[in-house]
Amino acid sequence: MRENEGAEKLELLWEAYRRVTPEPEPGPNFMPELWARIDASRSVSWVGPLKQLVARLLPVTAALILAMGAYIWIPQFRSAGRSATPDAPYVDVLAAEMMEDQQPAVWLTKGEEQRK
């Protein structure tokens, strides 16, 4: 019973829609006129061009950030194996020189002898 009521209401709705909305005449200017009406109904705003600008600049910005990160990270990665580099902080240079002067292999073996 409810299915019939729902179907009847739907048919009444479709009839009302057909009465209010005339069926368009197909012709060679149908699509240009349709797009002209759609464009006319759109509001003019400054947000549209801004969205386009952001959509174009976002990938460029992401690529630039990745390139800058790689530029900063890769030289540090390369110099990690060296004991003292010109770019290393002063404390690291002093520690490297101290380790070379003390010959860590010698004092490590002396520490092991003292434990016995």
List keywords for this structure.
116 residues; 5 helices; mainly alpha
Overall description:
- With 116 residues, the chain is mainly alpha-helical.
- It has a domain at 84-116.
- Helices cover 77% and strands 0% of the residues.
- The chain is elongated.
- The model has no long low-confidence stretch (mean pLDDT 79).
Topology, number of strands: 0
Beta-strand percentage? under 5%
Output the structural class: mainly alpha
Radius of gyration, in angstroms, nearest whole number = 38 Å
Number of helices: 5
**How are helices and strands ordered from N to C?**
HHHHH
Low-confidence stretches: none
Helix content: over 70%
Strand count, sense and closure of the main sheet? none
Task: Give the overall average pLDDT.
Answer: 79
Distance between the termini: 97 Å
TL;DR?
With 116 residues, this protein is an all-alpha fold. Helices cover 77% and strands 0% of the residues.
Question: What does the secondary structure layout of this molecule look like, with pairings?
Answer:
Elements: H1 2-20, H2 30-41, H3 47-79, H4 90-102, H5 104-115
